[in-house]
Amino acid sequence: MYHPFSVAETTKTAWTIFKKNFITIIVYSFISFLLLSILGIIIEYLISPEAFAGKMTVSFIMIFVQAYTTLGLYKLIFTVIDSEYYEFEFRQVLPAFKSIVSYLIVVFFIAFLVTTFHFLMVKFDNYPNIQTVLENIAAIVALYIALRVMFFITFVVDDQSGAFESIRQSFELTRGYFFKVLIMLGIILLFIALPAAISRYDGFGFVSIAIIFTYPLVNILLAVTYRKLVYSHQDVDDDIAETN
């Protein structure tokens, strides 16, 4: 292959893309953050606890908007990567409705699995030793699965794949790159978890603002890692701006 997958090169490429398109990406992230915050305030303060139907309606809208903004960010990332040498239009960064549905199916499927496992663990409340062993095994399995399916969203956006098709494609993409992808996952989790953890003790919220910057950066890391892995599997040159 021309350029075997490299963690250092992938990280450098992601940072370069982030710097070149800083204003565009940050403005999008800020608008998305503001929109979700407003919806959160509506749910928390403007709708009474007794208004179950109203809370459910706004919550569903919030889930849909969150999915739309998340996929829109990936669409924007892939657009700025592929449009380095030409201008792009706003409509190019709008995610397809099919992609939103596929994304939500995967998210709800994962939520179903997590909820089911939680209910199963409740049955072992009287057997704490067995419960601990099962939870440890589940944590290892969950980490492995998370690593193998972490690119489902990139296939949903970039390839417009269906929900379970994207999971299968992600498994295939990560085959043979377990430890390198594990390192990339560790970098991504570090960028997300560190500001989020510190923000709990930050009374002024300055660190919370950092998430607006780190969140798009980690998504760029994921998108670039995905593209680099695709090129490695296809045994083609990995000029990130030349290949769709």
Average pLDDT number: 83
Q: What is the C-alpha radius of gyration, as a whole number of Å?
A: 20 Å
Strand content: under 5%
Classify the oligomer. Answer: single chain
| Envelope shape | globular
- Element order: H for helix, E for strand: HHHHHHHHH
Q: How many angstroms does the end-to-end distance come to?
A: 18 Å
Number of DSSP strand runs? 0
Secondary-structure-based class equals mainly alpha
Helix count from the secondary structure assignment? 9
Note the main sheet: none
Number of domains: 1
Instruction: Show unreliable segments.
Output: none
Helix share bin:
over 70%
Write the layout of secondary structure elements.
Layout: H1 7-20, H2 22-46, H3 52-82, H4 97-122, H5 128-149, H6 152-158, H7 163-174, H8 178-199, H9 206-234
Helix pairs in contact: 1-9, 2-3, 2-9, 3-4, 3-6, 3-9, 4-6, 6-7, 8-9
Description:
- There is one protein chain.
- The chain is an all-alpha fold and 244 residues long.
- It has one domain.
- The protein has helices spanning 7-20, 22-46, 52-82, 97-122, 128-149, 152-158, 163-174, 178-199, 206-234.
- α2 runs antiparallel to α3 (52-82) and α2 (22-46) packs across α9.
- The longest helix is centred in the first third of the chain and has 31 residues, at 52-82.
- The mean pLDDT is 83.
